[in-house]
Amino acid sequence: MNAPFLDPMNATLRESRMVLERLVQWKGVEPGMIFSVMDCGVYSAALGPSGCEDLERQIALLASSPSAPISIIEAGDAIRIDAGGRHAWLIAEPALDLAIDEYRRKGAGAVTVVNAVEPAELRIVAAIAEKHELSATATAGDDGSVRIEVGARDPSRQTVLDRIRRQGIPVRRDLWFHLFHLSSNALAEDTVISRTHTGAFMIKPDGTVVGEHDEEFAHEDISMLTAEALEFRR
């Protein structure tokens, strides 16, 4: 007897990263920022409050962010970052890096971010800071600014990344597969020729499959390699 599908389901860390990486790549995020922004999306989905429900909207806002560099203003011990209308996912890691540098050198680290799109998303610095074995908070100001502060971390506490690795990210099944199919826009169009790199097999333009009769692949079903179209299966 087949077990019923769980809904909501739990998306694994690997699958979440894959889908987010494809989505931000498809939307034109600068190559050097893809992995940083991908992790921001994963942490945003894991930390809520909207979780995966808000990912598509956030990615649309991300795609429309200006490409101008951010401005850093130092006045005494205060560091102020003008995001210039860039999305919070593009600002989170650079802002946190500056706060960590202050913390390492002075024993206390804080920066204030202004003019960021979706400033509430800067809450993800709490998860990003854990890879540095530090804690971080993001406190919203009445003027739309966000103050990021870095401090020591309790090593006995489970990290957000470890929680995702062990438990996954809760998400509605229909929403997950919507995002999954949407992420396919980042991939090359599927054709028989586009599968020439599949495993240890190679497909020639005339449809000949090299490796088809090799003994080690005798029990492999390679029919999918030459099918005219592939269907996703749930």
Describe the structure in your own words.
By secondary structure, this protein is of the alpha+beta class. It has helices at residues 13-26, 34-47, 55-63, 88-106, 125-128, 160-167, 173-183, 223-226, and strands at residues 9-11, 71-75, 78-82, 109-114, 134-140, 146-152, 169-171, 202-203, 209-210. The protein folds into two domains: 9-183, no CATH class; 189-226, no CATH class. The chain contains eight helices and nine strands. Helix 1 (13-26) crosses helix 2 (34-47) and helix 2 crosses helix 4. The longest helix is centred in the middle third of the chain and has 19 residues, at 88-106.
**Mean pLDDT level:** 86
Number of helices: 8
**Multimeric status of the protein:** single chain
Number of strands: 9
Low-pLDDT stretches are none
Biggest sheet descriptor: 5 strands, mixed
In percent, how helical is the residue content?
A: 25-40%
Overall structural class, as computed from helix and strand content, comes to alpha+beta
Order of helices and strands: EHHHEEHEHEEHEHEEH
Judging from the principal axes of the Cα atoms, what is the shape? elongated
> Which radius of gyration do the C-alpha atoms yield?
22 Å
Please tell me the total number of domains: 2
Spatial ordering of strands, largest sheet: 2-3-4-6-5
The CA-CA distance between the termini, in Å, is 17 Å
* Share in β-strands: 15-25%
